[in-house]
Structures are given as structure tokens and as C-alpha cells.
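Many introductory courses stop at the sequence. We go one step further.
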Amino acid sequence: MSQGPRDEPVIRTPDRRLRVFVSSTLGELADERRAVSRAIEALRLVRDQGIDAHLLLVGSAKFVARATRFDNRGYVEALREQVARAGLEERVSWLGERDDVPELMRALDVLLLPSSEEPFGRAVIEAMAMGVPVVVTNVGGPCELIEHGREGYLVSPRRPVEWARAIRALADDPASAAQMGEAGRERARDFSLDRHVKSMLDLYERTLARSPALVGTKA
């Protein structure tokens, strides 16, 4: 298994355990819009169905001053209590702040993006670029990034039962999961830097072609 820059194992899990990564914006375990507590519930459901899975949580409580809108430190403490009550301590890794996210992504079996709000979903593209199938809520940007059943699964927000069903489908059919991973890798190429630059240049050229008076105009 590859090593992180701090010479720690990237993920400490049994070799055959399904590794599920929960994406949280900017590595922040914040308020319930990130739906981490529901992801933990999905893990419990998967465990109860006999799937040997492990949840990876990257990030920490940020913005913990009294003036902060949400009690982020209290939220993380509540998550830890939820894990303990469900008997999932050995199935949840609290990885904290990491600077080896690419290595983490490569070691995954599934990316779970459980947000109830998601304007774009960069983590989805990053996971797909690594060939990782994704399970993402069908809100905001992710709906435009993947096709249900091709690169992964689109699921309803706030429905851990659906998330668990999708994770189990991937666990039960490794060949299909691998195909989704390859489809995601191909889809991620649409968001490469070269293609982005080309699409922007094409846009400028089309705009100038429709408005020739703009050419040579001084600011």
C-alpha cells in the first residue's frame, strides 16, 4: 500500500474491506449540509447487511469561534458519539487534515458525496480521474457530472437507505464497479486543464466572430 508524505499508512483497513470515502467540502467536517451523520448511518446499514466496509473521514472542525454560525466542534463530537453507539469504531477512520488526497483517492473503492447542497462537486471529478466509482446525491452540480449507472449512482439526499443500497450494489458486483471506474476516468478527461483552456478560447473566438467591432477595442 502506498504511503502518505508523513510515512503513515494512507488507510489502515483489512485488505478485503470495502473502502468508502466521504467527501466534505474543503476537508471540513462542518454542519449537517455535508450529511456526514447520515453517511455513518449508511455505513451501519451496510454493515448490518453483511458488507465489510470502512468509512474514511478527512477533515476537522474549522471555524470554531463563538461567532461561528454552527457549533462545528460540537458537531464532530456528536459524530464520534454516533459512531460509538453504532459499534462502528473499528470501521470509521478519522484521518484529520491531509495533504496526500491523491494517494487516498487511489486507495478507495467508492466515493460517497452525501451533501444536501453541492454547487459543483470537484471531489467527484477527482475520484473519477482515479478510476473510483461514485455515489453522489442528485442535487446541484453532480447531476451534470455523471450518468446514473454509468460512472456511478445518483441517489436522493437525506436517504442513507438509498446510499447503502448503491454501495452494496458496487460491493456485490466488482466487475460492474470496475467498469464504472473506467467510465468515470474517461468522463474526467472532459475536465482536464487542456480541454478547459481550449473551450474558453473557443468561446472567446465565437464571441469575437459575432461581434467584430470588439476586435482591437481599447480598454
